[in-house]
UniProtKB/TrEMBL annotation:
Cellular compartments annotated: Membrane
Matching InterPro entries: Cadherin-like_dom (IPR002126), Cadherin-like_sf (IPR015919), Cadherin_CS (IPR020894), Protocadherin/Cadherin-CA (IPR050174)
Keywords for the protein's UniProt record, in alphabetical order: Calcium, Glycoprotein, Membrane, Repeat, Transmembrane, Transmembrane helix
Protein name: Protocadherin alpha-10
Signal peptide (from-to): none
PANTHER family: CADHERIN-87A, PROTOCADHERIN ALPHA-4
Chief location bin: membrane
Membrane topology annotation: Single-pass membrane protein
Organism listed in the record: Tinamus guttatus
Domain Cadherin: 5-39, 48-137
Entry superkingdom: Eukaryota
Transmembrane portions of the chain: none
Pfam families per the UniProt record, alphabetical: Cadherin
Biological-process GO terms, alphabetical: homophilic cell adhesion via plasma membrane adhesion molecules
Length: 137
């Protein structure tokens, strides 16, 4: 919540006359990698037609990490290797898109997992599973 605290300190003795002094103490808070990334599905367009063109957007995702610096930088990937891939639309937002042709007679539904990993040491991870049914044409 705060990267820096400034504290004003004043001290007064009990002498006659009392003397005082003051200073400013600056406390810098260093971020540690204590927050895992979070992945939200913000939109889902299902089922996907087996004749959908390449590049068809299946889902919109939002990814964030409350840490700062490299601890808060998140990389995302789709697992397992599937006909779907991720396209970064802008920072923290991704589209799950169709990368290969579908054939419902071969595979009628995909289990897709979006994996997010932050840049901390050790890296923290998050996953979001999506079931993507394929409709017959």
């Amino acid at each position: 919540d705060a990267r820096l605290y400034e504290i004003q300190v004043e001290a007064t003795d009990r002498g006659t006359p009392p003397l005082s002094g003051h200073c400013k103490v600056v406390v810098e808070v260093l971020d540690v990698n204590d927050n895992a990334p979070e992945v939200w599905v913000t939109s889902l367009s299902l089922p996907v037609a087996e004749d959908a063109p390449l590049g068809t957007v299946v889902s919109l995702l939002s990814v964030s990490d409350r840490d700062s610096g490299s601890n808060g930088r998140v990389r995302c990937a789709v697992w397992p290797s599937s006909p779907f891939g991720l396209v970064s639309t802008f920072e923290g937002s991704y589209s799950l898109v169709l990368r290969e042709a579908l054939d419902r007679e071969r595979v009628s539904e995909y289990e897709v997992e979006v994996r997010a990993e932050d840049g901390g040491t050790p890296p923290l991870r998050a996953r979001r599973a999506l079931r993507v049914p394929v409709s017959d044409v």
